[in-house]
Amino acid sequence: MFVPEHWVAAFIDSLQAQGGETDEGLRALEVLAPWVASLPGAVFGSSAAEKLEKLIRAAMAAANAAAIAEGTEKSSPSLEVAVRFLVLMVKKNAIRHIGTVIDELKKFLDRKNGIVKATVEYVLPPEGGEESRIKEAVRERTGASSVVLTWQLKPELIGGFRLHIGDEVIDASIRSQLRAMEACLASGDGGN
């Protein structure tokens, strides 16, 4: 069974052992992974991994030669670790999971940096200081140092908003309030 957290931990351990930076390693994976995924045919097994490594190293040598000519050469242990990591994923027939690994690595970096990402579903765009009030409420609730909000239009909410913070959902929509009233009336409780 593929466990992305184990792959992320191995990647981070390798970066630390080689003196690389996690955010640089993430950027390297984000650049290299789509290229690997675009290769024709099946990309798994030892022979494919060897071919892949040769292709990547040839491309890196060409890019490095151009950087030397421009005087912008910069060696990166993070890039080296990313290359070896992708080659290992190909050898282990796990390259199809690279997107999941990258997503988990982003989550790790967000946790490390105290960043919380939340999604706000709304009917009407926020007015005035609503966005800053929501960010502050999320910051207080989670203890985050920074909050990143994503906004999604959801007309079916009728009014209000629904806030997603990780697995938690705070539903302050008119639709949910109407459903609660409907359930209360249907139960014959009438709110008493």
Mean pLDDT: 86
| Count of alpha and pi helical runs | 7
Structural class by sheet pairing and helices: alpha+beta
> So what's the overall shape?
elongated
Biggest beta sheet summary? 4 strands, mixed
What is the terminal-to-terminal distance?
51 Å
- The total strand number stands at 4
Q: What is the number of domains?
A: 2
| Unreliable stretches | none
* Share of β-strand residues: 5-15%
Strand numbers in spatial order across the main sheet = 2-1-3-4
Sequence of secondary-structure elements: HHHHHEHEEEH
- The Rg value, from CA coordinates, equals 23 Å
| Helix coverage percent | 55-70%
Describe this structure in words.
- The chain is of the alpha+beta class and 192 residues long.
- The chain folds into two domains: 4-110; 114-186, no CATH class.
- The protein is 58% helix and 15% strand.
- It is built from seven helices and four strands, in the order αααααβαβββα.
- It has helices at residues 4-18, 22-37, 46-70, 77-91, 98-112, 130-142, 174-186; strands spanning 115-122, 146-153, 160-165, 168-173.
- The protein has a four-stranded mixed β-sheet.
- Helix 1 (4-18) packs across helix 5 (98-112) and helix 2 (22-37) packs across helix 4.
- The longest helix is centred in the N-terminal third of the chain and has 25 residues, at 46-70.
